[in-house]
Amino acid sequence: MYTVVAERSTTTTAVGWIGYIIIGGIAGWLASKIMGTDAQMGVVLNVVVGVIGAFLGGFLLSFAFDTASGGWWFTFFTALLGSVILLFLVKLVTGRR
């Protein structure tokens, strides 16, 4: 009798650290535009939100997809999704509009 266990992707993408910073900056900036927090955030905070959002989105999507082989576009949309979720949670906790 075999038991099938769903495996998550535990490796990082082939984008690299510089790619994460570039993609994170763009994704963080777009997420701040979507969530209406762009006036409160600077460039550095956009990059931080984007990079943390990339890891958050990658973690959440790794349960359903192989996130390690996605490439630049998949990494960007993952970072954007994670950044929007992160900003939503921050707004929810802090109570800011």
Automatic annotation (TrEMBL):
TM spans (from-to): 12-31, 43-65, 71-93
Source organism superkingdom: Bacteria
Keyword terms, alphabetized: Cell membrane, Membrane, Transmembrane, Transmembrane helix
InterPro entries recorded: Transgly_assoc (IPR007341)
UniProt-annotated location(s): Cell membrane
Main location, first listed in the record: membrane
tRNA-binding recorded as keyword: no
A GO CC term attached to the entry: plasma membrane
Topology term for the membrane: Multi-pass membrane protein
Entry's family note: Belongs to the UPF0410 family.
Protein name: GlsB/YeaQ/YmgE family stress response membrane protein
Organism encoding this protein: Gordonia mangrovi
